[in-house]
Each structure stands twice: as C-alpha cells, then as structure tokens.
Design brief:
Helix content is about 20%, strand content about 45%. It is an alpha+beta fold. The protein folds into 2 domains: about 1-95, Rossmann fold (3-Layer(aba) Sandwich), CATH 3.40.50; about 100-205, Nucleic acid-binding proteins (OB fold (Dihydrolipoamide Acetyltransferase, E2P)), CATH 2.40.50.140. The strands form 4 sheets. Strands 7-6-5-8-13 form a 5-stranded antiparallel β-sheet. It has a 4-stranded antiparallel β-sheet with strand order 11-10-9-12, with no helix packed on it. Strands 1-2 form a two-stranded parallel sheet. The longest helix has 18 residues, at about 25-45. It is globular.
Length: about 210
C-alpha cells in the first residue's frame, strides 16, 4: 500500500498492476483486493490490472478484456462477459462452464426454443442461427437445478465446501459441474449415486 501511495502522489495518467496479489494467502488477498478497489475508486485513476484470477478480475474491474494468443476475444463489464460470453474460450476462461450441444427448433425476435438431449427449453435470447442448426449453450455450475429430472447422471465428485457443495456428474459423455449454494438442509449426493438435474432456463446462454 505504501508503494501504491507513492505512485498516486506522482499523479500518473494510468496505473499498471501486474499480478500484485499473486504471493499473498487467500484471506489477505481478498483484503488487499478490496483495498486496491477502494483506493482506485477514490482517486479515479485509470488502472490496467493484469491477473489470471477470474474472481479477482471480476471483483476489481469496470471493464474486462479477455485475450487469447494476443487477440482480444471479448471486452465488456464483468457481468456481460460472465453471463454472455461470445465463444467457448471466453466461457471456459471466466469462471467454469458446462457446454451442451443442442438444436434450434423455433425462434422469434426476442426468444427461441432449443432442444437439448430431447428436452426443450424456451430461452429469452435473440439468436442469429437458423432453425435446425446445431447450437452450443453455456450453463454455469450454479445454474444447474438438481432434483428435477430432465436429465440423469452418475455422481463422480461430491465435495462439501461449507458455503456450497460441488458435484461432478457424468451425463452421456459429458462431465457436468454443479455448484449448490447454501447446502444446509439440502439433500447430499454421495459418489456413484444417481442425480437428477435440469437447466435454469433464465441462465442458459446460446453461443
């Protein structure tokens, strides 16, 4: 923080942070991330923050830029990039993503109907695909609904993390990641057990 204060005294036009928190433990990292964000907002200096930590990027940034091999894949707010990734690379780079293959069966100017492994979902998204086209959709682990039997899979990972419960489920040839928040009082699924799940239609994003 002393070095940052000295830099601010110089009143630079732009500040560059190159992974400044990489050597800190988890709790101190969160504290310093919040402090950097607070100072940056107070002084209003444009800052470029380089990091490979997706949560850090989303927590600190007003605008996120995702690059691959020197080329910009997507630029936008953290919410926009996380919820509406432009391609599979961005979807997998920011957070975790389940990628399902489906087919477009109907569309209007504001919504469409897709078929995902025999289950149909009406998605509130405008698409440029043609009816009958194969499509790929993104479903984040936290947007998977369990105990609803659209799909069935076998639990290959069950890990209680306190604030959430992580599952990995084999469905056909896919490893589906599921994150259940606030698991207290909710059914826990053991390894090798069968788990029913569905997709939250409001959270589906078509690539």
């Amino acid at each position: 923080r002393v070095s940052l204060a000295r830099a601010l005294v110089m009143e630079p036009g732009v500040l560059l942070f190159d992974e400044p928190l990489s050597n800190l433990d988890a709790k101190l990292r969160i504290h310093m991330r919040d402090e950097i964000r607070k100072i940056q907002q107070q002084v209003g200096i444009t800052s470029i923050y380089v990091t490979h930590d997706q949560a850090e990027a989303m927590g600190l940034a007003d605008k996120v830029i995702i690059m691959k091999e020197g080329r910009i894949q997507q630029a936008g707010s953290p919410i926009e990039v996380y919820q509406n990734p432009v391609n599979e690379f961005v979807a997998n780079f920011i957070g975790r993503a389940n990628i399902f293959t489906g087919k477009l069966v109907y569309k209007t100017d504001s919504k469409c109907t897709i078929d995902v492994y025999g289950v149909r979902y009406e998605v509130p998204q405008k698409v440029t695909h043609n009816i009958g086209d194969e499509i790929k959709i993104v479903a984040r682990p936290e947007s998977i609904i369990i105990s609803k039997d659209d799909f069935k899979g076998k639990v290959t990972k069950s890990m209680f993390m306190g604030a959430y419960h992580e599952y990995e489920v084999m469905f056909q040839d896919l490893k589906v990641e599921i994150s259940v928040s606030n698991p207290r009082g909710k059914k826990s699924y053991a390894l090798d057990s069968e788990l029913d799940f569905s997709l939250d239609v409001e959270s589906i994003h078509i690539l």
